[in-house]
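ok new one. same drill as before - structure tokens go in, u give me an amino acid for every spot. 338 of them this time. try not to just spam alanines like last time pls lmao
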């Protein structure tokens, strides 16, 4: 096993001890950071060089040498811990060799237990940047995943701002008012959910049980069903922090984004396709954020994707339309996106 894999195994063992979810720690180690590490054109060099840099700074490999390190020697346990901490910093915080040398001078003053504790903190926090424009927006792994992702960080801020604007319009124009809709708002509603006055048995709607809204009484109009879903999205989007993760190649082909858990901050994972392929029809990054928020806050499912299938769903199976995430995405974009 080469030194890089040995160090990553060591780091993985520490991640399991860190107070982070397995999904966060493992995904960060083996997927997010590999978006940068596996890219031969990245500014910091390839996988081997990133490991070598940490080994050199920790004193486990002579400079300009490709010989095997003394990583496994029992007497080098402290050095191994420091090298692992340096590799994690190099990957997560995108540190150069000079920056690592400065960090190593500080780590040398710590015992092994303190070094490992700092490593676990690094794994837990990762590459998190607080948006200066939007206090409740956090962005994770954009700096550590290469030049493109750093640029996309600004696009995320724009998407968040657009989402906030659409949901504010939704609150003012849709969540208040009487039992009828008029004009373009009525047209958009009928396109994605059918007749707003039609009464449905909400207990039979195919939402996810974990987050499903509860209506009392159970018989409600479609308008009230959709209003409750959007009420939850608007309320929680404004009140809770949103953390958007860059997932790179970790996100399967054809998937723009997904959510994990209901904790604060709400976690939305996005891949490169979120930015490069989300432009078809009415699709947008902001609409995708709305889509994911309906999963988290209201228990919607993915019954259908894309604009035309969602419109057909409203005609053929309106019960599924009211529980379909993309139906809300396209409705919000059509009604409040201009």
């Amino acid at each position: 096993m080469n030194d890089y894999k040995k160090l990553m195994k060591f780091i993985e063992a520490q991640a399991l001890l860190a107070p982070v979810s397995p999904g966060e720690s493992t995904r960060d180690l083996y997927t997010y950071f590999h978006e940068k590490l596996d890219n031969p054109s990245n500014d910091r060099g390839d996988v081997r060089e990133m490991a070598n840099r940490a080994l050199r700074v920790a004193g486990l490999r002579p400079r300009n040498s490709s010989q095997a390190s003394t990583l496994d020697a029992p007497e080098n346990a402290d050095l191994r811990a420091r090298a692992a901490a340096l590799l994690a910093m190099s990957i997560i915080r995108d540190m150069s060799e000079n920056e690592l040398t400065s960090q190593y001078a500080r780590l040398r003053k710590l015992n092994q237990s303190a070094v490992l504790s700092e490593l676990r903190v690094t794994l837990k926090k990762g590459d998190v940047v607080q948006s200066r424009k939007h206090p409740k927006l956090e962005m994770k792994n954009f700096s550590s995943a290469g030049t493109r992702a750093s640029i996309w960080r600004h696009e995320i801020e724009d998407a968040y701002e657009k989402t906030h604007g659409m949901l504010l319009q939704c609150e003012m124009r849709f969540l208040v008012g009487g039992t009828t809709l008029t004009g373009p708002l009525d047209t958009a509603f009928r396109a994605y959910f059918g007749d707003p006055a039609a009464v449905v048995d909400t207990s039979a709607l195919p939402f996810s049980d974990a987050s499903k809204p509860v209506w009392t009484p159970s018989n409600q109009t479609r308008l009230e069903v959709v209003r409750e879903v959007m009420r939850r999205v608007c309320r929680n989007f404004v009140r809770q922090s949103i953390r958007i993760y860059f997932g790179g190649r970790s996100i399967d082909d054809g998937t723009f984004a997904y959510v994990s858990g209901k904790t604060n901050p709400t976690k939305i994972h996005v891949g490169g396709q979120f930015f490069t392929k989300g432009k078809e029809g009415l699709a947008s990054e902001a609409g995708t954020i709305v889509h994911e928020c309906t999963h988290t806050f209201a228990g919607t499912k993915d019954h259908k994707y894309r604009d035309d299938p969602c419109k057909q769903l409203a005609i053929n199976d309106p019960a599924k339309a009211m529980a379909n995430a993309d139906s809300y995405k396209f409705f919000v974009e059509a009604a409040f996106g201009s």
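The chain has a mean pLDDT of 82. and btw Residues 147-173 form the longest helix (27 residues).
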